[in-house]
Specification:
mainly alpha
Protein backbone atom coordinates (compact mmCIF):
# COMPACT_ATOMS: atom_id res chain seq x y z
CA UNK A 1 0.00 0.00 0.00
CA UNK A 2 2.72 2.49 0.96
CA UNK A 3 5.07 1.42 -1.87
CA UNK A 4 3.60 3.73 -4.53
CA UNK A 5 2.65 6.62 -2.26
CA UNK A 6 4.63 9.79 -1.79
CA UNK A 7 5.81 10.88 1.64
CA UNK A 8 3.11 13.53 1.71
CA UNK A 9 0.42 10.94 0.88
CA UNK A 10 1.64 8.63 3.66
CA UNK A 11 1.57 11.55 6.12
CA UNK A 12 -2.04 12.37 5.15
CA UNK A 13 -3.10 8.72 5.50
CA UNK A 14 -1.62 8.51 9.01
CA UNK A 15 -3.11 11.90 9.92
CA UNK A 16 -6.56 10.69 8.85
CA UNK A 17 -6.12 7.42 10.79
CA UNK A 18 -5.22 9.29 13.99
CA UNK A 19 -8.08 11.79 13.67
CA UNK A 20 -10.55 8.98 12.96
CA UNK A 21 -9.28 7.07 16.02
CA UNK A 22 -9.74 10.09 18.30
CA UNK A 23 -13.16 10.96 16.89
CA UNK A 24 -14.53 7.42 17.17
CA UNK A 25 -13.00 6.45 20.54
CA UNK A 26 -13.41 9.93 22.12
CA UNK A 27 -9.97 9.64 23.69
CA UNK A 28 -6.29 9.97 22.84
CA UNK A 29 -4.10 6.97 21.97
CA UNK A 30 -2.82 5.18 25.05
CA UNK A 31 0.87 4.84 25.84
CA UNK A 32 0.05 1.58 27.65
CA UNK A 33 -1.54 -0.19 24.69
CA UNK A 34 1.24 -1.51 22.42
CA UNK A 35 -0.86 -1.36 19.26
CA UNK A 36 -2.01 2.22 19.83
CA UNK A 37 1.47 3.32 20.84
CA UNK A 38 3.03 1.79 17.72
CA UNK A 39 0.37 2.96 15.28
CA UNK A 40 -0.52 6.41 16.53
CA UNK A 41 1.32 7.74 19.56
CA UNK A 42 4.83 7.42 18.12
CA UNK A 43 3.69 9.24 14.97
CA UNK A 44 2.15 12.03 17.04
CA UNK A 45 5.29 12.38 19.17
CA UNK A 46 7.60 12.48 16.12
CA UNK A 47 5.48 15.15 14.46
CA UNK A 48 5.21 17.20 17.65
CA UNK A 49 8.99 17.10 17.92
CA UNK A 50 9.35 18.25 14.28
CA UNK A 51 6.83 21.05 14.87
CA UNK A 52 8.63 22.30 17.98
CA UNK A 53 11.99 22.19 16.19
CA UNK A 54 10.57 24.15 13.26
CA UNK A 55 11.27 21.31 10.81
CA UNK A 56 7.69 20.46 9.87
CA UNK A 57 6.64 21.24 6.32
CA UNK A 58 4.51 24.41 6.21
CA UNK A 59 1.52 22.70 4.58
CA UNK A 60 1.32 20.23 7.48
CA UNK A 61 1.59 22.70 10.36
CA UNK A 62 -2.02 23.90 10.39
CA UNK A 63 -3.47 20.38 10.12
CA UNK A 64 -1.24 19.11 12.89
CA UNK A 65 -2.16 22.04 15.15
CA UNK A 66 -5.85 21.15 14.66
CA UNK A 67 -5.04 17.59 15.67
CA UNK A 68 -3.29 18.83 18.81
CA UNK A 69 -6.34 20.96 19.66
CA UNK A 70 -8.56 17.90 19.27
CA UNK A 71 -6.22 15.93 21.53
CA UNK A 72 -6.36 18.68 24.15
CA UNK A 73 -10.14 18.27 24.23
CA UNK A 74 -9.74 14.60 25.23
CA UNK A 75 -6.79 15.14 27.53
CA UNK A 76 -6.79 12.77 30.51
CA UNK A 77 -8.00 14.35 33.73
CA UNK A 78 -6.98 13.43 37.24
CA UNK A 79 -9.86 11.60 38.89
CA UNK A 80 -9.28 13.36 42.20
CA UNK A 81 -9.70 16.90 40.88
Amino acid sequence: MFAIMTQNDRWLVKYNEVTKFIETKHRNPSKHDEEERGKYLNWIKANRKALNAGKMKPERVEKFRKLLEMMEKYKRKNQWE
